[in-house]
Amino acid sequence: MAHLKAPIARPVKQSYDVIVIGAGAAGMMCAATAGQRGRKVLLVDHAEKLAEKIRISGGGRCNFTNRRVAADNYICRNPHFVRSALSRYTAADFIELVQRHGIDFHERDWGQLFCDDSAQQIIDMLQAECSDGGVDWAMPAKVLDVSRTDADSERFIVDTSIGRFSAHSLVIATGGLSIPKIGASPLGYRIAEQFGLAVVAPRPALVPLTLPPETLSRLAPLAGISLEVEAHCRGPVFREAALVTHRGLSGPSILQVSSYWQAQAYEDADWAPVTLDLLPGVDAEAWLLAHAAERTLLANLLSERLPRRFAHAWCELHGWTRPMNEFRHADLRSIAATLSGWALTPSGTQGYAKAEVTLGGVDTHALSSRTMEARAVPGLYFVGEVMDVTGHLGGYNFQWAWSSGVACGQAA
Ligand code: FDA
Question: How far apart are CA 382 and CA 387, in angstroms?
């Protein structure tokens, strides 16, 4: 498809039906939907470049949705909230849109769908959909203030660096805090608080974990080694790769479980560690006991199923550096239990600079799950990642942007 011109433009009107702040995934989807219903829509964004987060997503190929999307792919303090929007605008609906725009795509593990060519195609598609809806753009434009006229006229006023605009409906689509260098900001949370809505404290999620010095000193020299594990922390079990880094652990299984590790911040209970099964699908106890009489080092035996350098470092970390026949059976049972459930207490995360998403956000208890409108503030809506809805890795965060954007665009 022809590459469209950047939307950087000054709007001609001052009065709109709908103003959307944030021209990312959810904001463009919402603006296009509302515009195509005949609403006069203005999209406002402070970035110089359109939708940078989409452009860098999925390693530049945008994992735009997933074949299997369900409510339990999301973390939200209001667990049923996502159901309505996800069921009314599904992955199949978005796939149909992508096909209509002639974008080729492919499926990877776990139903993840990626563009064959480039994430830019998704940006171009959303921009074209906005054009079809006659959407106006104010970009780049800094938002200076948001206010509401008196209750009788019920209009929102948005003061920006390029002028004052007003609308009956205001949609906040400013995303989360991850990757601040490409335009992430807390404006959406501030606007929610300004209108009396609660915000669940944001935290980096889908993020590499850091390890305490005593563990890191053994593992950091192995940076780059990857192994398949089952990772778990008070939530689902994720069987995917874990990657040793200079600061701790990363890789898909660790990113997935990091969101659940972080989510414990909202509970009163003590923090559970992250647990890794290093030999998924293997009966570790039976395997070790079957080799109990051998003179081979434990680390050498483990090297049959784990990367060799990792097996040796792991045994040194635990002080298990003897041959198999020098361990008592009780020791081997305890080693097997550690192999199947290695409990690690991270020292923290690598923060928003490396996080794919933000956990927490505008508390959905105050929003309509059908329209995304704040119940106590008619005309004020929130869509996408700015809300307390965090998807698993695998295209689920974009699907939430599309589904919540459409739900709102049909109502605003
Ligand atoms: P998004 O962040 O897309 O848009 C927010 C917009 O608001 C931006 O354009 C920003 O400039 C604007 N804005 C912010 N503050 C503003 C202010 N003060 N004034 C005006 N405008 C403001 N998800 C997935 O499903 N599949 C994937 O492959 C990936 N890959 C991926 C890679 C990387 C590196 C990251 C960081 C993230 C992903 N994600 C992902 C997550 C996904 O990108 C994210 O969940 C969606 O982009 C969220 O869409 P939103 O529209 O809510 O926010």
Answer: 7
